[in-house]
Amino acid sequence: MKKVNIIGANLGGLTAAVLLGRAGWEVTLFEKQPRDGILTDWVENMDLAVFERLELDPPPSDCYRKKKNWAFLSPDGSSTAVAYGPEESREVLVDRRKLTEYLMSLAEINAELRFETEVTELVVDGGHVSGVRTEGAFFGTDLTIDCTGPLSQLRQKLPSFYGISPSPDDKEFLAIHRGFYEWGDGAPMPKQTNKFYLRQGGSDGIAWCISDVRDYCADVLIARLGEVTEEDVEATVNALRETNPIIGEEETRDPVEVRLPDRQYMTKMVVPGYVILGATPYMTVPIMTPPLSDTMDAARILAEVLAANDSCETDDLYVWQVRYCREYIAKEVAADVFRSWLLSTDIEDQNFLFESEIIDGDFLSDLCSGTSPSIVSKGRGFFGMGVKKPAVVNTLRTALTDMKTAYDLVQDIPDSYNKTTYMKWQADLESLYG
After folding, report:
1. Which of 123, 218, 295, 412 has its Cα between 20 and 30 A from that of 212?
2. What single string gives the DSSP state of each residue in 207-227?
3. What DSSP string runs through 352-403?
């Protein structure tokens, strides 16, 4: 029986435990946090159809509810464009805590889950990751799946000859503060329950305000390049209250603060006996696409590849990376290119593009569905105000062209692994970011 060690009880790790345990692998999952410590009290977007692809029953209906459309506001707050999801979409808002509990219950059927057990070392023997070491114990394995996130200390200790990037640049992080506030006294239900603020207040970052009807609270996120200070939080929350009276004075629970890379890093994701599992090796901020189901699909594709050929050498595991890059990461990288543009281009230009309706609901709906949008000759945006600032429109055209270029480059990942051709492909992709 083949053995697999999974490090990290996130949704990707738990899904891999479910699928590989069902396929007959001997599965051990290690999580350094206690069981309750991995449960997160918030909701996120998810494609419910992922459970059909996984051939699993969907979670209980109280785990999720209908997703609301997002209203995107220009940096000056004066223009709004609503992104409508496609009618056939099965995206929902899922309760992260309940979903995690559901997946844990499935994983425990055929896998051993070891909580409060930190993996301290990846053991490399003859170029092959042969197991993991915890405090005082060694666990040999045929395959190790690393789900430890963007700042994996384990990955940083791998030998450099593998060619895996150890960590992102400290200067390219988005600091995130997510707070939950009581419903403002007497505040009515807003017309738009999900508001997304681009470059809010002229900042190098974003914000959102979600009216959480279920818990009757306001979910407020503030993200900034570099750091989010207490002054940033106070100023942003006060500014958002002016147009969002649902944001009360008292917080209903402790805020969450994390740091994540603000751009996609493409890196080698497999070595002999080892896989980095996730939407990306560094799991960037999910502004436009549903990362939960994408991460679960990563586990599904890996399980399918292992079922076809259970070898854990680079050439065989690389088949998983090729499939996942083409099916999912290509659209993520394209979205990252547009995110980089949003966080760097002139704020007045962005205000103009919203005001002129060149960026409108259709444009943003395409972005949110993973489709590269286009500028078409429609409405007053193109024929009216748009022609007054052709340089601004051309800046947007360039960003969209860069998105398409990035998408095509990821699709062109070499079919089989060769170090020379792979490194050339990786360098071409990295050049998109300057």
Report:
1. 295
2. EEEEEETTTTEEEEEEEEES-
3. HHHHTTSS-HHHHHHHHTTPPP---S-HHHHHTGGGG-HHHHHHHHHHHHHH
The two three-digit tokens of residue 59, written as one number: 């979670």
Pick the closest to residue 102 from 64, 67, 66 (CA basis): 64
Q: Strand, coil or helix: what is 171?
A: helix
Helices (H), 57-132: 96-110
Residue for token digits 């994996």?
Answer: 152
Domain co-membership, 47 together with 156? yes
Say if residue 21 is in the same domain as residue 107: yes
In the chain, the number of structural domains is 2
Interhelix angle 291-308/314-324, nearest 10 degrees = 140
Establish how many alpha carbons lie within 13 A of residue 337's alpha carbon, considering only the half-sphere containing its beta carbon: 31
C-alpha distances (whole Å) from 415 to each of 105, 143, 324, 371, 410 are 37, 22, 12, 24, 11
What's the pTM?
0.90
Poorest-confidence range of 102-106, 203-207, 290-294?
290-294
Which of 98-112, 268-282, 324-338 shows the lowest per-residue confidence on average (mean pLDDT)?
A: 268-282
**Measured between alpha carbons, how far is 383 from 241 in angstroms, rounded to an integer?**
36
Most confident of 19-33, 47-61, 261-275, 282-296: 19-33
Only one residue has tokens 């002129």, namely 356
Point out the domain boundary residue: 305, 329, 353. 329
pLDDT tens digits along 3-34: 999 999 999 999 999 999 999 999 999 999 99
